[in-house]
Write a structure and sequence with these properties.
mainly beta, 8 helices, 7% helix
Length: 807
């Protein structure tokens, strides 16, 4: 018995010893409270700061040096500080969650020079959208994600769309980038563009928006700004074991009967990582609000009954029939890191939309009758293969090198048929885009950095068309949107940038880029139109530069000055589009079109008042030469021609001598008592050409004010979004002609009225395994249509969603 008792005592001592040892040998992980992601660079230290550590990229730090009862502090510039004893940490499962700060200047951005930079050293105005904001705002599409920043204005011609406007530029004058690859291709048009919704908002890790020209780093099209999207990354295991994690989400929205499901999961080994993501969304017809502007209602629509077009009275005039569609997004990533120096990532993206009714055309009238029996976009398909190779080993020429190879396959189509007619016109465009980027980063002897790289892009465009008898199925030739034989678009470029921190207060950064562009298209087919030339061959080259200065008189102050140039070289859509019908007008090719150039100045000021408040304001002025605008033109000496059965005014994209745009954006944040936080954002832009004619893509005054409440488990935001009016005389000529989408002023002219909405959104965290999203948009059920949009915005919209963390 004594022997057994002694052995029991030894066993108890052994257990206590092991438990005690676990306190001294355990690693701890620090995570973001909202999105459950590891936080790198958290300072971990004791009261005297004689013991300290730093979390690695997986948020892990070793606690061996700390005593069991010693208080351990956790500090990161982007998060609120926390403190626990080692015993308390053990009770928490050796996982510490930090709550993000309301505002901070110490953010890192990638988009400015393709390499990670401290925002305190960048003179550009850059807005960063983090994963936690995406999770909270719960956007239906990536266009909505941008709109919810309240710094990018988004136009929508139909529900399945979203065309961002930045500083008076849009479409092919702003650039979309995903994981380092430019999405803009040779047929990104001057009109409103809907391609951003091909990106899956649920698969985006973060996004950065550069305001102002970004041509030094990104080349053509980056006049108004750059929208740089970073999708979810494939993660490796933090130890020798395989690790599996994932997320699942489902959401319902009442205004368009949206039903969305998403899942992503990651399998990580020490050297290999595999990430899969899939999202499917189904959207019904969109219901508009019920208050104000009854002229926006949909009193009737066309339906095909027994082989005949019939006008149907809409039982609910606030229901926009038809607008519904569905979409699927797939993403697969494979990562291989054989050493600390080499990291290779392959990614595959696939997006497909169903047929999307073009609502702004379906509400057009010809006399007293609806003009179209059908008008829809066929499936918009985007596929991308990309390989990113990162090599990190300091040598004479670089410290870091990055190779990005990509292939994109894009397809879009347009299908329209006049009311009562049997001929359905169908036009299809396919683009194959190849790109190569090679970027280098070098830290020099002093506190400075050199960035440089090269880029090559090649696009091949195939354009086909026919008309189809919907009764017999018989096909007939039809004019194509672009030349139907050869359409080649090539870009070659090289760039360099230099940054130097002269002191703790002063940073200077500059850059230069050379860009060469060539377009070749043939116009040999004269079946439909007798062109005065049989091919278009255009070559352009451009030098662009930028210089910026950052002054930090104190830690809480930052003053930015940035001078930059940008350019947009004509692409195939600008220069070789055969015909693009608008109500009562047609657009013809212009072989003499030249690049447009922008000269821009930004002045920005940021100020933090401790942890209580923050303020920022940025003013800009952009001067355009050879500005590309749509104006009256002639075709074979005629200012009007017969097109699609009606006499139409001839238009073309031409170079105006000059244009100018100026504006400002401001934001203010105040930390209030009782865990309340107030934030307001306001944006103003004005622009016109040399003749005093307003520019088409200048958005109205717009902004948002939010009152946020936040604690560990619950987050609620009550906010108002608002837009100013654009009067008839302040609208571009092309907008003045769109009577069917605008309200009518007291003089009987179209105009874009002001509006505001009241909204509420919330998020509740259920322990560590999930969150519940809820919200009501447009609580007052206001009927409004954002500027230049064909579709009316959603009415009162109830939203509910559930997210699960699968770990």
């Amino acid at each position: 018995m004594m022997w057994k008792f002694k052995n029991h005592k030894l066993f108890i001592v052994f257990v206590l010893f092991i438990n005690g040892m676990s306190l001294f040998a355990q690693e701890l992980q620090v995570k973001d409270l909202e999105i459950q992601k590891p936080i790198e660079g958290v300072a971990v230290f004791n009261q005297s700061k004689q013991k300290s550590g730093l979390t690695n990229k997986n948020g892990i730090v070793n606690l061996d040096i700390f005593e069991p009862t010693e208080r351990i502090f956790f500090q990161h510039p982007s998060y609120k500080s926390a403190a626990y004893t080692k015993q308390e940490v053990q009770q928490m499962g050796f996982v510490v969650y930090l709550e993000s700060e309301v505002y901070t200047m110490d953010e890192f951005v990638i988009s400015a020079y393709r390499w990670e930079q401290n925002s305190k050293e960048i003179p550009n105005k850059i807005t960063r959208i983090q994963k936690k904001e995406i999770v909270f705002n719960n956007p239906q599409t990536t266009a909505d994600l941008l709109s919810q920043t309240n710094e990018v204005f988004v136009q929508k011609s139909q529900l399945g769309g979203g065309s961002p406007m930045i500083r008076g530029f849009a479409t092919n004058s702003v650039l979309l980038v995903v994981d380092g690859v430019r999405m803009n291709n040779a047929i990104y048009r001057e009109g409103n563009l809907q391609n951003v919704i091909s990106l899956d908002a649920n698969a985006i890790e973060s996004s950065e928006i550069i305001f102002g020209p970004g041509s030094v780093t990104y080349g053509s099209d980056a006049l108004g700004g750059v929208m740089d999207f970073h999708t979810l990354k494939a993660k490796l295991s933090t130890d020798t074991k395989m690790q599996v994690s994932g997320n699942a989400m489902t959401r319902y929205s009442s205004a368009n009967n949206e039903k969305t499901g998403h899942i992503d999961f990651n399998i990580g080994a020490p050297e290999w990582g595999f990430l899969s993501s899939i999202t499917y969304s189904d959207y019904g017809d969109l219901r508009m609000g019920s208050r104000h502007h009854s002229e926006y209602q949909r009193p009737e629509y066309v339906e095909r009954i027994n082989g005949t077009d019939a006008v149907i009275q809409n039982s609910n005039p606030n229901l926009q029939v038809p607008t519904g569609y569905n979409q699927i997004n797939l993403m697969q990533k494979i990562r291989f890191r054989p050493s600390e120096n080499l990291d290779m990532n392959y990614e595959f993206h696939y997006s497909k939309l169903s047929d999307v009714p073009r609502y702004d055309r379906l509400i057009e009238y010809s006399g007293e009758r609806l003009k179209y029996g059908q008008w829809y976009y066929g499936p918009q398909i985007w596929m991308m293969h990309a390989l990113n190779v990162n090599y990190r080993k300091a040598n004479t020429f670089f410290d870091d090198a990055k190779l990005t190879l990509a292939f994109q396959d894009y397809e879009e189509s347009r299908h329209d048929r006049k009311f009562g007619k049997e001929s359905l016109r169908q036009r299809t465009e396919k683009v194959k885009a190849y790109s190569l980027n090679l970027d280098f980063d070098k830290n020099l002897n002093r506190d400075n950095e050199l960035y440089y790289g090269v880029e090559a892009v090649y696009n091949s465009v195939n354009s086909t068309a026919h008309s189809k008898n919907i009764l017999t199925g018989e096909l007939f030739p039809e004019s194509t949107r672009y030349p139907d034989r050869i359409n080649d678009y090539t870009t070659l470029a090289a760039y360099a940038g230099y940054k130097e921190n002269f002191s703790e207060r002063w940073t200077a950064i500059s850059g230069i880029r050379f860009n060469y562009t060539r377009i070749y298209s043939t116009l040999n087919d004269t079946t439909f139109f007798n062109f005065p030339y049989d091919n278009i061959s255009v070559s352009n080259s451009a030098f662009n530069g930028s210089v910026g200065l950052v002054y930090r008189p104190e830690k809480s102050w930052q003053v930015n000055l940035n001078l930059s140039t940008g350019f947009h070289a004509p692409n195939i859509d600008d220069i070789a589009k055969v015909f693009d019908s608008e109500p009562g007008s047609v657009v013809v090719p212009n072989e003499n079109l030249e690049p447009e150039y922008a000269y821009n100045a930004d002045l920005g000021i940021k100020k933090e008042f401790g942890r209580m408040a923050a303020f920022s304001i940025t003013g800009f002025y952009t001067y355009l030469t050879n500005a590309m605008v749509r104006r009256d033109f002639t075709f074979n000496g005629q200012d009007s021609i017969l097109y699609d059965g009606e006499m139409s005014k001839v238009l073309a994209i031409v170079n105006a001598d000059k244009a100018y745009i100026y504006g400002l954006s401001a934001s203010a944040e105040i930390q209030l008592p009782y865990q309340l936080h107030l934030k307001s954002v306001l944006n103003y832009t004005y622009g016109e050409d040399q003749d005093g004619i307003p520019l088409r893509h200048v958005a109205p005054l717009f902004g948002s004010t939010r009152l946020n409440y936040k604690q560990k488990k619950l987050q609620i935001s009550l906010y108002a979004d608002y837009n100013g009016e654009i009067a008839y005389e302040d609208m571009a000529p092309g907008e003045q002609e769109k009577n069917h989408i605008y309200a009518t002023d007291s003089n009987g002219n179209p105009y874009s009225p002001s509006w505001w909405t009241l909204n509420v959104k919330g998020l509740y965290r259920v322990k560590n395994w999930g969150t519940l999203n809820f919200g009501i948009e447009n609580i007052l059920d206001v009927r409004y249509r954002p500027y230049s949009s064909g579709i009316v915005a959603p009415g009162r919209n109830f939203i509910v969603g559930i997210r699960l963390n699968l770990q």
